[in-house]
Amino acid sequence: MGSEKPIILDGGLSNALEDRGHDLSDALWSARLLRDAPAEIAAVHRAYFEAGAMVATTASYQASVPGFAQAGVPVAEAERLIASSVRIAQEVRDEFGGERLVAASVGPYGAFLADGSEYRGRYGVSASALRDFHGPRLELLIGAGPDLLAVETIPDVDEAEVLVQLLQELDFPAWLSYSAADGRTRAGQPLAEAFALGGIDQVVAVGINCCAPEEVAADVALAATVRPAVAYPNSGEIWDADARGWTGSSETLTDLAPGWAAAGAKYIGGCCRVGPSGIRALAAALSDA
Q1: DSSP-derived secondary structure letter, 4
Q2: Residue 200 placed within a domain
Q3: How much helix, strand and coil, in percent to the nearest 5, is found in the chain?
Q4: CA-to-CA distance for 52 and 278, rounded, in angstroms?
Q5: What is the pTM of this model?
Q6: In a domain, 35, yes or no
Q7: pLDDT tens string for the chain (289 positions)?
Q8: Taking a C-beta distance cutoff of 8 angstroms, is the pair 85, 45 a contact?
Q9: What are the CA-CA distances from residue 282 to residues 13, 51, 254 (Å)?
Q10: Per the annotation, does 210 bind a ligand?
Q11: Where are the alpha helices (DSSP H) in 212-275?
Q12: Which of this chain's residues are annotated to bind Zn(2+) (predicted)?
């Protein structure tokens, strides 16, 4: 990377919203607030920018027309809400100016299932079913005009193959980020195989998120052989999908992040349980490195 400084991403949206008093226990998760409290989503984007983030990741991770339909939201309104996730982030970004970016979050099919499947993959559905799910939401998000897509927390090479094909067809920039453990996707495929899918023109970075901090260094070095790497791990706590809660202790990312940058990470931030204070500390550590 030479002397180039990494681009600071934001942290977790859901934990920041929960810290503001919101209950996100239903199947729509943070996407519910696109309908019920959009100003709160804007407030979290603002807090991350104030902390030093250069990218706002939209509240669309769990947003899909089928997901909203299950919550009784009509199709036209669901489509409006998904697009609004980009607009909310753009309006806050415009308050700050400069070279800040809006990345439209594209979560995995498993997030729609709301049963922890994004930590397992292998959903038992066909590639055509995954395409029918992802295609319309990608088009809605792209139509709202983000700077790029954050295709994130993908647990499975099979799902990534569908998404990469859609990115090529839609010809829109994105980063491609997997949930991973022990050098493999959550579904068990080697990360070398997974990262290789990012070698298309539309993918600007490939890497991992929603993982343990100690996973990052080796995975970033592997990802950087394909594309500039993206890395935004969890705080160090572990999500228990059965108990629907976090266990373990939080680990600071500030000591580890300079090593990720040296290994080839161009985009660095935090995922679950990393809030604005964590991003402020991360930005300071990378600035000093």
Answers
A1: P
A2: yes
A3: 45, 15, 35
A4: 10
A5: 0.94
A6: yes
A7: 345 789 999 999 999 999 999 988 888 888 899 999 999 999 999 999 999 999 999 999 999 999 999 999 999 999 999 999 999 999 999 999 889 999 999 999 999 988 888 889 999 999 999 999 999 999 999 999 999 999 999 999 999 999 999 999 999 999 999 999 999 999 999 999 999 999 999 999 999 999 999 999 999 999 999 999 999 999 877 777 777 776 765 567 888 999 999 999 999 999 998 999 999 999 999 988 6
A8: no
A9: 16, 9, 5
A10: yes
A11: 216-223, 257-263
A12: 210, 271-272
Give the range of the structural domain holding residue 211, as residue numbers without chain letter: 7-288
Determine, yes or no, domain membership for 2.
no
* Residue 272 marked in a binding site: yes
Cβ distance 260 to 220 under 8 Å?
A: yes
Q: How many domains does the chain have?
A: 1
The verdict on residue 215 lying in a domain is: yes
What span, in angstroms and rounded, lies between the C-alpha atoms of 215 and 18? Answer: 26
- The strand pairing partners of 7, in sequence order, are 267
Give the phi and the psi of residue 241 in degrees, each rounded to 5: -65, -35
Angle (CA) 116 174 81, round 5°: 65
211 marked among binding-site residues: no
CATH of residue 216's domain is 3.20.20.330
Q: How far apart are CA 178 and CA 187, in angstroms?
A: 10
CA 135 vs CA 58, 164, 225: distances in Å: 18, 11, 28
Evaluate whether 228 touches 217 at the Cβ level (below 8 Å): no
Distance CA(169)–CA(180), nearest Å, equals 26
Residues 6+ apart with CB under 8 A from 107: 60, 61, 62, 118, 152, 153
Distance of alpha carbon 227 from alpha carbon 18, whole angstroms: 34
